[in-house]
Amino acid sequence: MSDGQSLMRAAAEVARKAGDVALGYFRGGTAVDTKRDGTPVTAADREAEQVARQWLEARFPQDGILGEEFGETRPGAPRRWILDPIDGTKTFIRGVPLWGTLVAVAEGERVVAGAAYFPAVGELIVAAPGQGCFWNDQRARVSTESDVSKAVVLATDERFFRYPERGAAWRELTQRAALSRTWGDCYGYLLVATGRAEVMVDEMLSPWDAAALQPIIEEAGGVFTDWTGARTSFGGSGIATNAVLAQDVRARLGAMGSP
User: Fold this and answer.
1) Which domains occur in the chain, in start order?
2) Distance between CA 248 and CA 195 in Å, rounded?
3) Does 110 score more than 70 pLDDT?
4) Among 115, 130, 76, 100, CA closest to 26
5) SS3 148
6) Which of 136, 186, 190, 197 could make a disulfide contact with 87, Cβ separation 3.0–4.6 Å?
């Protein structure tokens, strides 16, 4: 088994373990606290990340860990695991099942494996560069739709509070698309990677939101960039598309770089 395959399997296993912990709290009326940045957090977020960290410490004690809830361990390590125990906490709190657990493995800013687990709907997608992307053990592929007027386009929140110009570009895109939907979080990227949607955008993404998604989209045959068009999951934003719409959509959104 190659390093990519073993890391992909490890990412999937720890995502499952953490996600199943969170699932035990889902729709259970867990208390909600507010973090310093104004975002919500629950006991499910914290316990799920703790379980993931414990699993990783036992098996990869030299690696760093960066998690949304407990920060960074061994920041100088050549390799680190990037964790989001519940991506879509607001969705989780509302009892909507489209939240996920994200796990990525990175060497510097090169992501070498990623997994996204959606325990409330029974979906797991995992990928590593050169190893392919697998959705519930079946090969995942983006769509081949080349016409924006026939595309499904998604966003987590279409209000775009921080970057109104991105919101204006997004709304123009929705007018040209066949269908636009929100309430995305990481589930929107799963839909792109599995060919059920063509575009997913977020004006703001933290590393733990984006890192697992980049190899998933790319190994499914799609394109993942930040909003400048740079191929990175550390740019603070995200645009995921199938391959044939990549240039057209980024031009419409004002993402001027070359994906």
Assistant:
1) 3-139 (3.30.540.10), 148-253 (3.40.190.80)
2) 18
3) yes
4) 100
5) helix
6) 186
Asked whether 254 and 163 are in contact (CB, 8 A), the reply is no
On the question of pLDDT at 259 being above 60, the answer is no
Across the chain, what does the average pLDDT equal? 95
In this predicted model, what pLDDT tens digit does every residue of 159-203 receive, in sequence order? 998 899 999 999 999 999 999 999 889 999 999 999 999 999 999
Give, in order, the Cα–Cα distances in Å from 15 to each of 59, 208, 221: 14, 13, 23
Whether the pLDDT of residue 258 is over 80: the answer is no
What DSSP string describes 84-108? EEEETHHHHHTT-S--EEEEEEEET
pLDDT of the residue at 183: 83
Q: Which residue has the tokens 């912990």?
A: 21
Extended strands (E) in the chain: 32-34, 40-42, 64-67, 71-73, 79-87, 100-107, 110-118, 123-128, 132-135, 138-139, 152-155, 179-181, 199-202, 223-225, 238-241
